[in-house]
Amino acid sequence: MISSPIYLDYCATTPCDPNVVQTMLPYFTEHFGNAASRDHNFGWLALDAVELAREQIAHLIRASSKEIVFTSGATESINLALKGLIEANEPERNHIITSKVEHQAVLDTCAYLEKKGYAITYLDVDEQGLISLDALEESIQEQTGCIALMYGNNETGVLNPVREIGGIARKYGVCFFCDATQAVGKVAIDVNRDEIDFMSFSAHKIYGPKGVGALFMRSNQPRAKILRQQHGGDHERGNRSGTLNVPGIVGFGKAAEICSKEMHREGLFVQRLRDTLEEGLLSSIPSAYVNGARNRLPHVTNIVFPSIDAEMLLLAVSKHVALSRGSACSGITQKSSHVLRAMGLAENFARSAVRISVGRFTKEDDITYAVKILSNAVSDLENKNNVDRELIHR
Amino acid sequence: MLITSGRSGLMKEIKQIIQAYEEACIHKQKVALATVVHVEGSSYRSPGARMLIKEDGMLTGAISGGCLEGDALRKALMVMMQGKPLLTTYDTSDEDDAFIGVGLGCNGIIKVLIEPIKQEDETNPVMLLKAVLQNRQPSVLVTFFSMDNKWSENQGTHLLLKENGVNMQRNTTPIDFQRVLEEAKGVFEKKCPFFVQYSSSENELNNSSLTAFMEYIEPTTSLVVLGAGNDVFPLVQLAEVLGWSITLVDGRPNYASTQRFPTCQLVVSEPEKALQNIVIDDKTAAVLMTHNYHYDKQVLKALSAHPITYIGMLGPKKKLDKMLEELKEEGTDLGQKLLHIYSPIGLHIGAETSEEIALSIIAEIKAVFAGKTGGYLRDLLGRIHDRNTVTIDTVINA
Q1: What would the pLDDT profile of A219-262 be if each residue is shown by its tens digit?
Q2: Record: contact B77-A5, CB cut-off 8 A
Q3: Is A316 touching B (CB cutoff 8 A)?
Q4: Size of interface A-B (CB pairs under 8 A)
Q5: Most buried of A171, A339, B104, B287 (most Cβ within 10 A)?
Q6: How far, CA to CA in Å, does A117 sit from each of A177, A183, A368?
């Protein structure tokens, strides 16, 4: 087998930190108990481990441990929060405000609620990917039950003015749901400072295992309420039924603990790598440009290589580097990124956009290598395009 | 003579694959070969359809009508990185499969073998394909695949047998050569694909059951056109699209010139000697369109001595009748050969222009070699493709 390509797609998922795996291992075999078993040592040990993880995760976002509900991942957390809170609201509070650049999980859930008769406002963004706070405030109505806006965008890394959004939501007494899947563990989050009522995130984006996520639910001032979406037991204080994934949760907790300790240093490290990468690509490919350049997550960049088909480029370099086109696509119908389209990018430019994201295990050499591989591949494809064009005009 | 459905159309795909492979070798690019090895139910392409995938994502050939290529490309890139063959299964009967896409109208299970090509291996699958093209001899190409271990390293295009007995095999062929040879004989006789199941004997521990796809490949259709006038251009162009090999014969050097026909083999000759250096076999079609009665007649006479199964001649029925009568008087009785003479030439599709006439001629040759009558598919009862397959079970005694 040939050496594996360099992984630069940390926004899609991250490798499990070896320390996380070590912490998880005993919970598959030795400490296999069900955290809901209340009458023996196996259950007690499992519950204890789950509660420790809950504290570690709560600490990372400056919440209290009782405000953490474990789920199977961010998508479930998003569904639980949006459907759960709208159903728990009084029926006249039937309006949700969100934006056009949210993750598909939020947009699809909103579309489902729209079909059910709820009203949804989709805020526009400017060419930098930012919403207008004035527009947000103007769209709030008496019926508004929720503002659903993300922390950092999964395609461009653009950070929302979360504290301001939280302030506005509180001012009008509207619940603020924030999808922070990409931001947790990458930037310092304080749910109280930002006045967030619900926040979704997952383990596998922060060097934990796949299949585990969490929903933060504010417990006081004011207490956030949801209606459970899954029945079958009073797990998670009646908010989410189902036997807890103890090893996964233990890994999630450990991953959060490492992030709490390393986040600041790691943020500076990945930002330096990302900036080097951007500078390298922009200088070797003059036509390239970055989407959403202002206030961004430190580890991601979204670059357009005009006239290059991103799919062709990524497959051509797949032997050397692993990158992605916006969010993972599904199906054979090629749809350009809804995020980039909302930012006003023309269809053909949106098809030329590549997302590159670095992380904990990225090395400086990887960046040099990636710049070289990508610059060569882009110029090869540019030459091919020129030849094709000549053939057509002949 | 019985003519089974010809699969010479594959030859063009094979030629293109070899060309793309040679380009990849020059640029030191890795490649993988995808082969449709098995189809259950209906599919757009049958077993034997092939596609070459280069590491930069470029595709040559096709394994479907376009719905499977995108996924096969990704699998092929993975195969190149893993360095071992993969059997991938596509179920197009699953309407919910967003991966392949809904509404294909196909309803089948297609197995595609994707194998990495080692360029330093002189008997790699593309080299075997290259040997398929050499000399006008039917070939049997043997590709092994495993139904129970999709990553089995025993899988691959391993063996090429020619009807004249010349063989080529990879040194790692998983099944005993003599055994395979036995079954291959049957393929040459039946002229249809065979599937041979080699199951390991029961006491064997490892899962080593293998299926051999024995593919019968006929030589490419050879088109011999008598006459090199301007009305021949569309005929040559259509035949080229189909990948046929083309020979042009005319007495006039300024007509049969490389300038006018750069891709054809050219013969400038008087009619009596025209066929002397042309190989004429049962996959050769001769088309008489010299617009010269004497020339056509002499060539027709010469052709009657060859084992040819398609002779088409431009002109009305009266012309042929007159010609046959004269030949008879001169002592040449065409006898059984008459069955193979198609004049007026072409299928009845209302052709008027030389382009339309070319289409009707090409379609007629295709139909004759395939043993079909032409006509509307919608009027056909039963299946369109004769996918005759023979399955044989064999037990390997280790």
Answers
A1: 987 777 888 888 888 889 888 989 999 999 999 999 999 999 99
A2: no
A3: yes
A4: 34
A5: A339
A6: 20, 32, 52
- Of the candidates B213, B214, B180, the residue with the CA atom closest to the CA atom of residue B38: B213
Q: Is B187 on the interface with A (CB under 8 A)?
A: no
Banded model confidence at residue B106, pLDDT cuts 50, 70, 90: low
Cβ(A98)–Cβ(A135) below 8 Å: no
Give chain A positions within 8 Å (CB) of B56.
315-316, 380
Model confidence pLDDT, tens digit, residues B195-235:
888 876 554 445 568 899 999 998 889 999 999 999 999 99
Helix %, strand %, coil % of chain A (to 5): 40, 15, 45
Separation between Cα atoms, residue A364 and residue A275, nearest integer Å: 11
Residue B5 — very low, low, confident or very high, per pLDDT cuts 50/70/90? very low
d(CA A213, CA A249): 8
Q: What is the ipTM of this complex?
A: 0.78
Mutant choice from B27, B56, B74 vs A, greatest count of A C-beta within 10 A: B56
Q: In the prediction, which pLDDT does B169 show?
A: 84
Per residue in B61-72, pLDDT (tens digit) is: 999 888 888 899
Q: Does B66 touch chain A (CB under 8 A)?
A: no
Q: Is A329 a catalytic residue?
A: yes
Q: Which residues in chain A are closer than 8 Å to B55, comparing Cβ atoms?
A: 316, 319
**CB distance A1–B80 less than 8 Å?**
no
Residue pLDDT, tens place only, A61-114 = 999 999 999 999 999 999 999 999 998 888 888 999 999 999 999 999 999 999
Which residues have CB under 8 Å from A302's CB, separation 6+? A155, A156, A157, A290, A291, A292, A326, A340, A353, A354, A355, A356
Mutate to test the interface with B, among A318, A324, A383, A384 (most CBs of B within 10 A): A318
pLDDT grade, residue B346 (50/70/90)?
Answer: very high
List, in order, residues 6 or more apart from B260 with CB less than 8 Å away.
Answer: B228
User: Does A392 touch chain B if contact means CB atoms closer than 8 Å?
Assistant: no
How far is the C-alpha of B357 from the C-alpha of B374, rounded, in Å? Answer: 15
How many helical (H) and strand (E) elements, i.e. helices and strands, does chain A have?
11, 12
Q: Which of A4, A312, A318 sits opposite B77 (nearest CB)?
A: A318
Using alpha carbons only, give the angle A373, A375, A378 rounded to the nearest 5 degrees.
105
CA dist., res. A193 & res. A161, Å (int): 12
- Cα(B210)–Cα(B146) distance, integer angstroms: 5
CB B57 to CB A333 under 8 A?
no
Chain B residue numbers touching A315 (CB-CB < 8 A): 56-57, 73-74, 77
Cα separation, B367 vs B373, whole angstroms: 6
Chain B partners within 8 Å of A318 (Cβ): 77
pLDDT at A248: 98
pLDDT of residue B388: 63
Please report the pLDDT score of residue B3 as a whole number.
31
User: How many secondary structure helices (H) and strands (E) does chain B include?
Assistant: 8, 17
- The rounded percent of chain B whose pLDDT value lies above 70 is 89
pLDDT in tens, A158-216: 999 999 999 999 999 999 999 999 999 999 999 999 999 999 999 999 999 999 999 99
Report the chain B residue with the minimal C-alpha distance to residue A319: B81
Does the pLDDT of residue B398 top 50, yes or no? no
DSSP label of B272: G
Tokens of residue A227, six digits: 């209606």
Could you give the CA distance from residue B58 to residue B31 in angstroms, rounded to a whole number? 10
Instruction: Region of B243 please: left (phi>0), alpha (psi -120 to 50) or beta.
Output: left
Alpha-carbon gap, residue B309 to B294, rounded angstroms: 22
